[in-house]
Amino acid sequence: MKAAIIYGPRALRVEEVEVPAIGPEDVLVRVKACGICGSDVHRYLGTRYGQRFTYPLNSGHEYCGDVVKIGANVRNFKVGDRVTLGVDWLGSGSLGAFSEYIRIPKADRRLHKVPEGISHEEGAIIEPLLVALNGFSRAKPRGNEEILILGAGPIGLFILQRCLSEGISKVIVSEISPRRLELARRFGAITVDAKMENLEERIFSMTRMKGVDVTFECAGTPATIRQALSLTKPGGRLCLIAHYAQSAEIDPEAIIGKTLTVYGIGGGDALFEEAISLIVQGKIELKPMISHEFPLQRAREAFELASKGDTSVKVIIKP
Ligand SMILES: [Zn+2]
Predict the structure, then answer these.
(1) Please, what's the b/e burial string for 207-234 (b: 16 or more CB within 10 A of its CB; e: otherwise)?
(2) pLDDT-based confidence at 267, cuts 50/70/90?
(3) Alpha-carbon distance 236 to 140, whole Å?
(4) Which is it for strands 112-113 and 82-84: parallel, antiparallel or unpaired?
(5) Domain limits of the chain?
(6) Could you tell me if 127 and 85 are in contact, meaning their C-beta atoms sit under 8 angstroms apart?
(7) What is the rounded distance in angstroms from the CA atom of residue 255 to the CA atom of residue 265?
(8) What does pLDDT average to over the chain?
(9) Which residue, of 55, 161, 194, 201, has the greatest Cβ tally within 10 A?
(10) Which fold has domain 128-264?
């Protein structure tokens, strides 16, 4: 089968490798679509702070595909099921979903079925939706609260959609990419072009100098985490979702002095059923988030595009 192997920062090649063998608890999935996550970009660029990657590696966990083979002890899945999630931790030499086939270990516990009406491409971005829903459910924004989302990548845009679906109308999105700003505006956000406007001035004037009730930091830069701390009002909540390419100096007194509550958000697999129900009800739209699709052969181009982040939203590779 073919797989996109990363040999080091910016060194990616599509190569022929063995189809993974499966054990009695595993299933083999033919991957139909796999989204490039911010964490994949960090592996591709070799940049995530505090983490050293061991190359070569194959990345990819935001996938959707069809079951083609099941282990003898697997009970909940059959050949032909459309599925997502359950990718093993991606260590050195491991195979992720930027491949034609992927082995999902302990499938009964970790794999999820995707309903027929959701396409493979849409199914591939359920995983980042779960992360966004996890952040939303922890910070619990409510009806008339003022919300700030820093960064309108897929996670920020999912949080925006979730807020709006709950009737929270004052959601401010700060972003530098015109394409992402446009999408946020179309969903119904109050947008701030952080390149052209002074975010601090805009927020303080919109909130009568108080700051916002809840901030979601989905950009992952030293500047945005400092903005998050200064623009969240006393007693407010701050949700950290992005990964950082470098360390950031922050003022701990901003947390203590304002008695902020800070949430660190990782995955969100437990919210799968809730995600499907929101999608089926039309409360969350997946399709507008997909800005580009590439065949596996052009994975390098896809990664370069996703690395820039200013002209794309979600880039999907179709092995
Ligand atoms: Zn991800």
Answers:
(1) beeebbbbbbbbbbbeebbbbbbbbbbe
(2) confident
(3) 11
(4) antiparallel
(5) 2-125+286-318, 128-264
(6) yes
(7) 17
(8) 94
(9) 161
(10) Rossmann fold (3.40.50)
Q: DSSP state, 273?
A: H
Task: Return the structure tokens found at 186.
Answer: 């179309």
Contact (CB, 8 A) for 8 and 55: yes
65 in Cβ contact with 31 (< 8 Å): yes
- Rg over alpha carbons for the chain, rounded to the nearest Å, is 20
Question: How remote is the CA of residue 38 from the centroid of ligand 1, in Å?
Answer: 7
Beta-bridge mates of residue 301: none
Class of domain 2-125+286-318: alpha beta
Report how far ligand 1's centroid is from the alpha carbon of 106 (Å): 20
Q: Identify any residues that bridge with 103 across adjacent strands, giving them in sequence order.
A: 28
The DSSP result for 103-120, as a single string, is EETTHHHH-EEPPTTS-H
Distance of CA 142 from the midpoint of ligand 1 (Å): 26
Task: Give the position of tokens 């929270």.
Answer: 168
Beta strand pairing call for 314-318 and 290-295:
parallel
Least confident of 20-29, 42-51, 145-154, 231-240: 42-51
Question: How far apart are the CA of 205 and the centre of ligand 1, in A?
Answer: 35
The two three-digit tokens of residue 85, written as one number: 């999630």
Q: 155 CA to middle of ligand 1, Å?
A: 9
**Angstrom distance (rounded) from CA 115 to CA 223:** 40
Query: What span, in angstroms and rounded, lies between the C-alpha atoms of 144 and 153?
Result: 24
- 74 and 27 Cβ atoms separated by less than 8 Å: yes
Q: What is the mean pLDDT of residues 107-123?
A: 96
Tell me how far the alpha carbon of residue 37 lies from the centroid of ligand 1, in angstroms.
4
Q: How far is the CA of 61 from the centre of ligand 1 (A)?
A: 6
Structure tokens at 129: 């939706």
